[in-house]
Amino acid sequence: MPISSILLGNKENQRVLLFGVFGGQIGLYDGRYTYIRGCAKPDNNPLFSYTLMPTNMRGFFPQESLEQMQIAPGMRFTNGIPCLKIPTEICINPFYCGSLLFDIANDPHQENNIIRLPIEAEMVEKLKSVLRRIDAPSDVFERLGLEG
Question: b or e along 38-73 (b: 16 or more beta carbons within 10 Å of the residue's beta carbon)?
Fold first, then answer.
């Protein structure tokens, strides 16, 4: 089903949507709530790039990162092919933004963060389930402060 169909309200076979920016917060939308999970620690670690190429969007990885790289076993997104696991840093640390939770049905413009409500625990379970389903590495769970 095309994403536009889901966004326009077609709920047939609707699932959750996972979104985010590498090394930043990770978001989950379940048709009612938008949950945006921040990293657990101020250093935003562990953070690794999993790649078949020793480059990133801005060029080559720094020598210090390449000296620490490891070969990671294949995963779903590498079609089972082993890849490079390279320690990575990002320019903007998402720690200070924290986690956010919005009730889209009652707050479609996402203006009122309701993170303290019990619904966060349900959204955390959904997020962990999706991360397991897409074969996310264990360091993703650790960086986000989620028990795998």
Answer: bbbeeebbebbbbbeeeeeeeeebeeebeeebeebe
